[in-house]
Amino acid sequence: MLPKIRVGVLGASGYTGADTVRLGLCHEAMEITVLTANSHAGKPMADVFPHLGFADLPALTTIEEVDWGKIDALFCGLPHGTTQDIAQKILNEHPKIKFIDMSADFRLTNPETYKTWYGHEHRALDLQSEAVYGLTEHNRDAIGKARLVACPGCYPTASLLALLPIVKSGRIEANDIIIDAKSGVSGAGRSLKQNVLFTEAGEGLSPYSVAKHRHAPEIEQEVSKAAGENVLVNFTPHLIPMSRGELCTAYVRLADGASADDLRDTLQDAYGNEPFVHVAKPGVLPQTQNVRGSNFAQIGVVADRIPGRAIVISVLDNLVKGSAGQAIQNFNLMFGFEETTGLMQQPLFP
Length: 350
Description:
Blueprint: E1 5-10, H1 15-24, E2 30-36, H2 45-48, E3 60-61, E4 73-76, H3 82-93, E5 98-101, H4 111-118, H5 125-130, E6 132-133, H6 140-145, E7 148-150, H7 154-168, E8 172-184, H8 198-201, E9 206-207, H9 215-227, E10 234-240, E11 246-254, H10 260-271, E12 277-279, E13 297-303, E14 309-316, H11 320-334
Parallel strand pairs: 1-2, 1-4, 2-3, 4-5, 5-7, 6-7, 8-10, 12-13
Antiparallel strand pairs: 8-11, 9-10, 11-14, 13-14
């Protein structure tokens, strides 16, 4: 039996919060003791998410009502801007709590970059400098020692898992990366927005935030570290009429003498022993339905018909490996559990 860790989920009425609860119920060490959702305070979780009505869960409450002294770990699914203020208050008063943030507030290491892309000064700079970037497969040691982990966005997770090993290897030109990204509508959150209404998003495919998506600087930050130089990427996201799932297609220029097979070998070397990241065999193309509902990611490489170029395709479930699942993976590292604990649910198909 694993020791019980008292867990709270902030923003439990959102999609990432709900998936954290869903996955956490299968984790033998998690004791879910607090669920916050200020707009639904006082309601049972079943009223907000009926699919969780079969579980014995605490009622939703406001953040102001929580006794933080009875919490060991917090998963935060609140909006950016809100998170930094709450995290600072909680961690200043209760420094032993481990804080796993699924928002964007602590992902960017440069405060000026944060201000540029999120429109305001960062109000918790001491915590921002402490935060560890939570791309699990590439930052395990630091995550295991951290008090505050900033889980990557869903697009960066899919893109960086595919790109970091081949950038580090020097087998592609880091300054010539084009990422065509597509996500299900759950990536837009649960609040009412016209563009995600069924009649607006259904039966169509829409680009959005073209040349100005906030995940671009996050991708650039990590690719630049891998390349050892400042890198800009061409990143364009699209909305697909499905609930969950994400596919990123990266078009890359090969370095002199490298081939698509070399890229696949590099990825296989990087992930061959990983429990959740799988490299597709030659001729096998990743598909979102291969990973739906799971913490798995799949990456494939194809030689482009244009000489000197290759196409790298990655897929994941944006709510699991792209958010709640990766957060729990990081939770496992932070508390010394097997990294796969509570996360070995196989993909749901059909």
